[in-house]
Write a structure and sequence with these properties.
Elements (H helix, E strand, L loop, with lengths): L12 H7 L25 H9 L13 H14 L3 E5 L2 H12 L5 E5 L4 H13 L3 E5 L4 H7 L6 E5 L11 H10 L3 E5 L4 H4 L9 E5 L1 H5 L7 E5 L2 H14 L5 H32 L5 E5 L9 H7 L6 E6 L2 H11 L15 E3 L11 H6 L6 E5 L5 H12 L3
Parallel strand pairs: 2-3, 2-4, 4-5, 5-6
Antiparallel strand pairs: 1-7, 6-7, 8-9, 9-11, 10-11
Helix pairs in contact: 1-3, 1-11, 3-11, 4-5, 4-10, 11-15, 13-15
């Protein structure tokens, strides 16, 4: 019978994405095994009793732990440079785990106002219901962060680049301010992915993902994850994991494992195409503004170069004619589908003001960099020349 060999400690991330965390069963399979089981059996009642006494050392119920999910968690932790990872049923399940695990009645949260709509809802609507004070600041204004951290704080929550305005937050500077106020820093890193940005290396305490996005990256499955080097964080979230059931499906975890194998190749290729597309679009006369961190015209381009390996896979387009022109452009696209997902191998375009951020007020959307004429473009694996041609013919109809 073949044995799993311990991997060397100096492997490149691309190698870890293929081999990291693998646990072979007694059948010595090449591909990771898919353990579609809700429970596990014991040889004796005494064995079952012992398994529950040492819960966590043995698989007892897949709502708590599952071998396929464990492989995904271990591989993602190796890639992220984290000591631990907790999978979740979706990106929002992961964000909820982090926020509710680290807060209680009387806690205080300082967050960026430029967030995905559901994250903003969690912070501004749900947490206050349970006695948590929440304060919103502009992600790129360090003075606002500093003022907010003049009071003791439990959690700082942000995403960078932001969805969909692509505003960046200075991670090392914000982490320093947050830690001085006693806060744990939680970063939603879904837009950048672990390939292009490593928040834990810049002072973050927790990094959270919608693994539905780049990590699966092929529009197949929902998933989420939170990662940290802080064992106290995992102690804090375990009761929430155990008793509220935000479990990642073994099948979805298996798909995410397959997605990790090609993550580096896909994200780098998509980022290269995004830069090519954004470069073409920024000089187009029909567009008021193009936001892409990899462009020198982005107001935080220097920060993007310092924090990210590339500019990412997302581009924000702003049309003068508002919703009417944005809809005309979207409806004229032939290659790029209209969809509110992102980070997919297929390029996708959406109108955030009427989809992902539709529940926000006009003022809240404007503060997040979302205008009636804003289109979010997620660049996929198609030839950049074909994407440019599709956008060009659609813009002619605006």
């Amino acid at each position: 019978m073949a044995r799993d060999k311990k991997l060397p400690g100096n492997l490149d991330p691309r190698t870890l994405m293929v081999h990291g965390g693998t646990q072979r069963s007694g059948f010595d399979e090449t591909s990771e095994a898919l353990f579609m089981t809700s429970g596990y059996v014991y040889g004796t009642a005494e064995e079952a009793e012992e398994a529950f006494k040492t819960d966590g050392l043995r698989y007892v119920y897949s709502r708590y732990r599952n071998p396929t999910v464990s492989m995904f968690e271990d591989r993602l932790a190796l890639l992220e440079g984290a000591s631990g990872c907790q999978g979740a049923a979706s990106g929002m399940a992961a964000m909820t785990l982090a926020l509710f695990g680290l807060t209680r009645a009387g806690s205080r949260v300082v967050a960026s106002r430029a967030l995905f709509g559901s994250c903003l809802y969690l912070i501004t609507d749900m947490l206050p219901r349970y006695g948590v004070e929440t304060v919103l600041v502009d992600p790129d204004d360090l003075n606002q962060w500093a003022d907010a951290f003049k009071k003791p704080t439990d959690v700082a929550f942000l995403e960078t680049p932001s969805n969909p305005g692509l505003v960046l937050a200075d991670l090392p500077a914000i982490a320093k301010l947050a830690h001085a106020a006693g806060a744990k820093v939680v970063v939603d890193n879904a837009f950048a992915s672990p390939v292009l940005q490593k928040p834990l290396s810049m002072g973050a305490d927790v990094v959270a993902y919608s693994t539905t996005k780049h990590i699966d990256g092929q529009g197949r499955a929902m998933g989420g994850a939170v990662l940290s080097n802080d064992p106290e964080f995992f102690k804090a979230i375990q009761p929430f994991v155990r008793h509220t059931g935000p479990s990642l499906s073994p099948f979805n975890a298996w798909l995410m494992l397959k997605g990790l194998e090609t993550l580096d190749l896909r994200v780098n290729a998509m980022a290269d195409s995004a830069l090519e597309v954004a470069t073409y679009l920024e000089s187009h006369p029909k567009l008021r503004k193009v936001m892409y961190p990899g462009l020198a015209s982005h107001p935080q381009h220097a920060l993007a170069k310092a924090q990210m390996k590339k500019g990412g896979t997302m581009v924000a387009l702003h049309l003068e004619g508002g919703k009417e022109e944005a809809f005309r452009l979207l409806n004229a696209l032939n290659v790029i589908p209209i969809s509110n997902n992102l980070g997919d191998s297929k390029s996708l375009a959406t109108h955030p003001a009427t989809t992902t951020h539709q529940r926000l007020s006009d003022e809240e959307r404007a503060a997040a960099g979302i205008h009636p004429g804003t289109i979010r473009l997620s660049v996929g694996l198609e030839a950049a020349s074909d994407l440019i041609a599709d956008l060009d013919q659609a813009l002619k109809k605006v």
